[in-house]
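[audit] Reproducing an earlier prediction to check determinism. Same input, same settings, fresh worker. If the tokens differ from the archived copy the diff job will pick it up downstream; this log only records the rerun itself.
[audit] input (107 residues):
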Amino acid sequence: MDQTDFFKCLSDPTRLDIIKWVMARENVCVCELTELLQLSQPKISRHLALLRNLSVLLDQRQGQWVYYRVNPDLPEWANAVLKIIAQSAQTDRQTSYLNTSVNIYCD
């Protein structure tokens, strides 16, 4: 994985928010992200595609739903960066929404 591409991908605020959610919840559906981030499904999917193409996130289809999780095979340096992002999200007042409960059922 190229470090420049990795950091360029994470430089977008929406993708950074997606990473924070996925790190906080471990397995997140596209429908949850659209509700949580208040963005359209096509916009969320476009950002997820970039993260998936870089192998930061992995996807898994379950019926009509697609769930995303962090790739467990990321290089150690990339994993360390994502952990720092997740830790900072827990203390950042602007991301207190990470504790938000979403009433979406993707079954």
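[audit] rerun output stored. Observation attached for the diff report: The longest helix spans residues 76-91.
[audit] end
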